[in-house]
């Protein structure tokens, strides 16, 4: 996971996005990328690229808010595991 965080941090710093992107922008970009992912569902190459975009924006949002990705996913998974479906 650390390697992934480093890749995203390096890319964001290179373009100054680490300083310019607001939470609102990141959420809007994530929404747009999810729509592009949905449109790419039948094209495996495009699907991979759009999924990468979705993941990078989601991770950037977590990084911006200094959230530990492992912790928030574990917490949510534990919450879901208590539900009855």
Describe this structure in words.
With 85 residues, this protein is mainly α. It has one domain (2-81): MazG-like (Helix Hairpins, Orthogonal Bundle), CATH 1.10.287. It is 81% helix and 0% strand. It has helices spanning 2-15, 17-20, 23-39, 44-64, 69-81. The chain is globular and about 45 Å long.
Task: Provide the descriptors you would attach to this structure in a database record.
85 residues, 0% strand, mainly alpha, Helix Hairpins
SSE diagram, text form:
Blueprint: H1 2-15, H2 17-20, H3 23-39, H4 44-64, H5 69-81
The CATH superfamily bears the name MazG-like
Helix content: over 70%
Quantity of strands, as a count: 0
Uncertain regions: pLDDT < 50 for 5+ in a row? none
Shape assignment: globular
CATH architecture: Orthogonal Bundle
Query: Helix- and strand-based class?
Result: mainly alpha
Which fold name is given in CATH as the topology?
A: Helix Hairpins
Q: Percent of residues in beta strands? A: under 5%
How far apart are the first and last residues' alpha carbons, in Å?
30 Å
Backbone CA Rg: 15 Å
Count of distinct structural domains: 1
- What would the average pLDDT be, to the nearest integer? 97
Helix-strand pattern: HHHHH
Summarize the structure.
The protein has helices spanning 2-15, 17-20, 23-39, 44-64, 69-81.
């Amino acid at each position: 996971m650390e390697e992934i965080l480093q890749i995203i941090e390096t890319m964001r710093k290179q373009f100054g996005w680490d300083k310019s992107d607001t939470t609102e922008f990141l959420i809007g970009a994530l929404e747009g990328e999810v729509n592009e992912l949905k449109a790419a569902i039948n094209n495996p190459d495009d699907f991979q690229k759009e999924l990468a975009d979705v993941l990078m924006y989601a991770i950037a949002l977590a990084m911006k808010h200094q959230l530990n990705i492992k912790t928030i996913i574990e917490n949510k998974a534990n919450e879901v595991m208590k539900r009855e479906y």
